[in-house]
Structures are given as C-alpha cells and as structure tokens.
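Morning!

This is the sequence you dropped in the shared folder:
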Amino acid sequence: MYKFILKPILFIFQPEKAHHITLFFLKLTLAIPIVGWLFRNYFKVEDKRLERQVFGLNFPNPVGLAAGFDKDGKHFEAMAALGFGFIEIGTVTPVAQAGNPQPRLFRLPADDALINRMGFNNEGVEALVQRLKKRKNGTIVIGGNIGKNKITPNEEAAQDYAICFEALFPFVEYFVVNVSSPNTPNLRDLQEKAPLTALLSGLQVLNQKKPKPKPLLLKIAPDLTDGQLDDILEIAEATKLDGIIATNTTISRKYLNTKELELEKIGAGGLSGKPVKSRSTEIIRYLHEKSKGKLTIIGVGGIASAADAIEKIEAGAALIQVYSGLIYEGPSLVKCINQGILKHFKQFKDL
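The structure's back. Tokens below.
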C-alpha cells in the first residue's frame, strides 16, 4: 500500500512538508481507539530472541530510529507504534535555532537517497525537556543526540554539549555526541584527536559524578580515513566511551545515478540512504575487527531491508538504526527487518 499509493502521493510534496504530513496522519490514526490498537498490533513483532542487552540497557528489538527524524521529541511515542526497539531524539542544541534556509531536504529517487542540510534546526534543549517530562511510554528506550549551536565557536563547544547533557540526563537512557554533521560550519573539526578527546573527557567527568552514569556514545562520519578511525578507537578507549554510532551522512557524491546537473542544483548537504550503505558497513567491520569485538557499535547508513540490517549485524553492529530507508520503503520496514532477523538467525539461540 505504501509504495503504490501513499509514497507517490507524499513524493508530490516537498520532503520536509511530506514529513510533517506523514506524522500528522500517523498521530491521527493512533488517536482512534480501535484503529490505533489494530495499527500497533500490526507492526509489533514480539519475540524474546529479538531482545538485546547492550551497554546495560534492555532493548525489545535491535531496530532503532536514527537521530534527525524527531529532533524535538514531538513524535517518539507515535513512532514507537511502528515497532522500534529504541528511538534517538535530536540533534538538540542549548538554544533554539532555525537551521538553514528552506528548501534544505532533497530526495534522490534514482539512488534511494536523501540530501539534507537542515543545520540542527530545533527548539532548544529546554523545550525538549518539557516534552520528555510528559512522556507516557516508559518502555521505549530513548537516546539523546546532543550538539552545539551554530554561533558557538569550536573553542566553546564543550560548554554547549555539557548544557544539553545536564538538562537531558534525567530523561533519556543514553547519550550520543554528534560532531559529524556536515551542516554546521566547522563542526567536523571537532572529530580531530585533541578536541574530541577533550570534549568526551569533559562529558565523562560530568557523567561519572552522577549516582548512576549513563551510556555515552559518539556518532562518526563515513568520510574518515583509516588513520582517523584508529584515532577514534584510541579516543574511545581513553575516554571509556560506551559505543560508536557508524555512520552519519557523507559529503561524498561518488557513484550516484542522479544527474550531475541536479546535484549541482541541490548543492551542499549530507547524503544518506543506499549510497552510504557499503562505506558504513566497511567502517563497522573495521572498528569491530580492530577493537577485537570489544567496542559496541550501532550501525546506521543505507538500511532499507532485512538483508541490509543483517549485513550490518554480521559486520559487528550490536544494534541498527534506520531513517532514509523508512522514507523509501515505508512504515513496514521495521517489522520486515525484525522478521528477517528472526528468520536468518533462527539457528542461533542468542542473536
């Protein structure tokens, strides 16, 4: 139904508009008592074999919603109805910011991909906290993806991350430090060894002062070299990171089917979806093998089927996340992935 009816209709609209329309009708559907109950039960896949315990948290299944879809924590309870095992909200910054001018989200149908230059548009961490205080669904695992404001110089970035960390700490189950978005000027410079070590060490100091510290993860770009990945591994060990999310969007435009003229018209932004799949998997495998399996990895990038998810898991990912695949494949993607994982790993007692 989605691919043949809903998707063609949604693709008439600008991507950002279609995003809001989709969420409006999802919430409307869930608000109708019997229909909402049927909807939730259709997408739910309950099986003990899908449950995962990762960095001390219990996940009902390994499929999560990547950051960027629900920046302001307005939709995580509605999205949970699609069967996600966890949802990552954000990226959130200390102060509200509008992000980059629209249009800033573009579809590449020939590549099953998206280009975005959203620019951390969000209503600020305090607005997010107020919504999380009203959270009804206490079973879904929520991660908080934190960043810095555009106007904050890199020399003062640590303070922005600390503000978001402290404000969100009582309301999320884990944290993700985002220094890998290509859409905030100079943000990726924070991935360099010295500033990244200082940033993560500072956050860990705050974390370890808590009665019960929470998992702290780092989201990295797919454009890093092997040498930079080696640095990431050293930093992860030195700062006692709980895990890595691999990967964010890429600035590369290699091997796309979309015409060069159209890409030039779209301009700058991070590319996600199918073209990122191979590089993301390569990085997961590299980090997994180099760390001898000791580093926990959440795999994201180009997952649009159960086979794609299984590829990430077999490369070394403990959990996976989707976003662009949801746009192209529809709301049944999470259910299909979970069913596919069960079928593929049926010979194993423990996935």
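Headline: The domain at 2-344 is CATH 3.20.20.70 (TIM Barrel).

More detail when I'm at my desk.
O.
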